[in-house]
Amino acid sequence: MIVVAWLAFEVLRQGRTVQEAAVDLIAPVYIGAPLGMLVALHTLAGWKGTLVLIGTIVVSDSAQYYSGRAFGRRPLAPAISPKKTVEGAIGGVIVGTAFMVVALTVMFPATPIVVRVLLGMIVVFLGIFGDLFESRLKRLADMKDSSTLIPGHGGVLDRIDALLFAIPVFYFMVLQGRVA
Question: Residue 150: is its pLDDT beyond 60?
């Protein structure tokens, strides 16, 4: 109700378009909520939980890049991100999932193997979707990089886009006691 009221206020009283007002409302949720969950994750699972999640995303991203460069032939989403390939995504899923399985085995050995594998796959898939989503946002805004703060890396948002989509599911699994 608050979101609808705010949207109506922005459009009716401030003279903004629905699109402009929606961006103001979505941005804090898209970035703020997952980062808040990351802080809560650190509180619940400590540095080990945070490291497993961030490490899985980093390993998966790297595996996507290198397996895509080595084996990539078919574009994954050419209109959104022309350099991403199906083969790169497959490599990222395999290596990222394997990393999470091993990392959870070491850091949280009481976590059932089925949870380790499924959570690894879900986190990696969500990371890929997060990366594609951010790429789509950049295409819609007609931007190559989201900022120039980190030269050559596309900006801060490019560094955390996969993580933003992966954090909620990992956080809720920890919150539910599935990762222990």
Answer: no
